[in-house]
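Need tokens for this chain, all 452 residues.
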Amino acid sequence: MDKRNSSLTRIFPLKGRQLGILWAGLLGISVLLSILAALRGGYVGPDFNTHMTRVITWGNVCDLSATSPPTYYLLAHGLLLLVGSNKWFPITLSIIQSSINAAAMWWFFLFCERRFNSALIHTSLVLLLTFLPVRIMHAAVIGTDCTTIPVFVLVLFLFDKVLTQATPRNALLLGLGLSLGVCAKYSFIALLPAVFLILICIWWKRAWSLRHFAMICVLSLLLPSVFALASFWASSRLHGYNTEKHWLPKGAVADMNYQDLFSVKSNDLQLFKAPEYFKKEILTAHKHSYLGLSHMGIFTDTMNIFQDLNVPQRFEPNLIPDLKTRRPWKTPVMQASMCLGTLWTLLALIGAPWLVARALGNLWKDHLEREDVAAFLGVAYFLLMFLPIPFVYFGDFFGYWTPRLILPSLLCFFLAAFLLIDRKIAVRSHKIALAVLVLVTMQCAIEVVMLT
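Here are the structure tokens for all 452 residues:
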């Protein structure tokens, strides 16, 4: 083992502050890609007109019948008052979003660093997540999806503090973090039952008093639960999306069922041609699987978000991705990204169940590690967005399969993939770790070209 560590040190001598500088440099490059994209309209994505209408119209900012809470729109409206109603407003907002997301990713890398035996494998994870197309694009796009990664990473740190030291202060901070999540994106409601179940197990294993357990639960879960219930109540009164508009009308047939969700289809091979989403080539009901569509959305720019806007930039809420043109040479690059990305998707599909099983064992032994908490919360977030798809209105056509909706879960799934490599595959040879780093570097180089 000493010889192996010595060999790794010679190959990859960076450590400590030097690694932090490396992460910051890589994330800086990703922010630069986002800035360049914002200057050519990269902030225009799905539902751009809906989000912009809420931002610029004060009467719509606090619309509780809409798909998202008002927090993001309140902050964006404040920026609008500072910058003014001009083309620089969406550009500025997009750059701020990308910068916040980059900072959150730095903290996520710090959160999971000590859980890796190999610095090479951890650096490979850093590279993959830093330049993951879906993460970069939807950090820049105007809309509430940009809030999910920063809030999720915050919750991971706060929950880790509760597990380490279950004091009233730490529980209250966790409650505030979960409340921020629910107020930023309704999908954070999924974390509440997950946190509660973990706390029940810890209560039993650590023999907490009933009073202490009740206090921790109240401080960490009461406020976010109140916000969640209030959102459902407001939505039901206003016939909003949370309670009515998302769902299939009575007697209607879903265009994406559980067979589509849990199978792989031969038609998925057509997705490796990197089709353009808004040209409607992939929106036929039951034609493709959830996995195939999601894989395409993770590793390509299928919505042409970072491609060229073919109209002059202006303060225009009605811009749509259909107005963007993909240069012909970009399609083969996206195909290459999707093909090489198959390796990481397969590893995530294997690693996620492995990590969840390991997390359950550690929960039973009262020995939860950071990756275990990430697995539980990431899977809870994913299941809330994944399992109801057969019951939503036009789930396929309206893109409920798009990976932008599960960005926090993707962090956890790829974390599981690289922990699997670290613990089970590369444990006997540093050459495997080096090969993984080379492959990830190739993946990232392709993605940088694609997003430029």
